[in-house]
Design goal:
With 326 residues, the protein is an alpha+beta fold. The chain has 16 helices and six strands. A hairpin with a 5-residue loop joins strand 2 and strand 3.
Length: 326
């Protein structure tokens, strides 16, 4: 026996489009659904509930109805709920139906939590036990508060969250910053196409620099060194490298100074092509590595001769000056 009472054709003007109690779609990508409906029509009828005054509330099928309207249709065959229903149970049924056919994006999950709290007045313990695990957050209470704040974020930020462009680490911190900073970070991560781990690393550097300078994240993003890296016209990977380099110089000034001294030292050595002098990562030790490549006996001899000349000239006698600026 079906859950609904009957099926009938409903004109779209009879639907209360402002009642989004059961809506679970946010920033949907409708292209594939549109192609399907254009080719074979709507295979599963939307669910509507009869409300006071004879208007209809959409229970399930927001995406299908949206596509039909975009295609210029003015009515659709729908399954009608006429008798009083347990709306909480029906909401859970609609959620399970959605989870069975598609993954929900983060904004949709936040919308669901907000409805459970605001519309249905469910206690947090009920949401934690019955719904949060379905949404992929286990029973961690902190996610209730984090998800509750998502609808208040700027639309551009919500769009990025819906597209899975921003990490959960970033989402957890976003509400603490002004909207302008939220937008700036979102645009930065979108333009650089940073993965979640790189986002985390970049955010940590930004916060470290902000703490060192006793200033806000927005001010750090406007520093000349950071602006220059962000406005670089090179490909995203090179802009990313430039931005990380600028931040590390700000975060680790001693390292940056040692790096500059090392660069000048290597320049003075006039090493031949194929020969490289390298320091330890972040100058963690006072050991250096010298490598050279050769293709024949003659090139090997030239490399060894260069090393002999460097040794006789005492070029490496005071390597500690690189680290300590002596």
């Amino acid at each position: 026996m079906p859950l609904w009472d009957r099926t009938q054709t409903v004109r779209f003007e009879q639907i209360d489009w402002e009642d989004e109690t059961f809506r679970m779609s946010a920033f949907p990508d409708l292209q594939k659904l549109r192609e399907s409906i254009e080719q074979v029509g709507v295979l599963v009828a939307p669910w509507l509930q009869v409300m006071e005054g004879g208007r209809y509330r959409v229970i399930s099928g927001w995406r299908r109805l949206t596509v039909l309207r975009e295609l210029g249709k003015d009515a659709a065959e729908c399954c009608i709920f006429e008798r009083p229903v347990d709306e909480k149970a029906l909401f859970r049924a609609v959620l399970l139906e959605n989870l069975a056919v598609r993954p929900l994006n983060l904004v949709e999950k936040a919308q669901i939590v907000r409805t459970l709290r605001g519309k249905f007045n469910l206690p947090d313990e009920k949401i934690l036990h019955d719904f949060l695990p379905l949404l992929g957050f286990g029973r961690e209470k902190r996610w209730l508060e984090i998800l509750q704040q998502v609808p208040a974020l700027p639309p551009e930020v919500q769009q990025a969250l819906a597209e899975d462009l921003l990490s959960l680490d970033l989402l957890e911190k976003l509400p603490q910053w002004p909207a302008a900073v939220q937008l700036e970070l979102t645009e930065l991560f979108r333009s650089l196409r940073l993965g979640k781990n790189r986002q985390k690393e970049l955010l940590r550097l930004l916060e470290d620099v902000a703490r060192m300078r006793d200033t806000g994240l927005g001010e750090v993003l406007q520093l000349p060194e950071i602006r220059a890296a962000r406005q670089d016209q090179r490909p995203a990977s090179q802009r990313t490298a430039a931005l990380f380099d600028a931040l590390r110089r700000l975060r680790f000034p001693a390292y940056s100074q040692a790096e500059e001294r090392f660069r000048r030292f290597v320049q003075q050595l006039r090493l031949p092509p194929g020969m490289q002098l390298q320091h330890s990562p972040y100058f963690e030790s006072d050991a250096y590595t010298l490598q050279f490549r050769f293709r024949n006996q003659q090139e090997f001899h030239r490399a060894v001769e260069k090393l002999r000349l460097l040794d006789e000239s005492g070029s490496f006698a005071n390597l500690s000056a690189i680290l300590y600026g002596e």
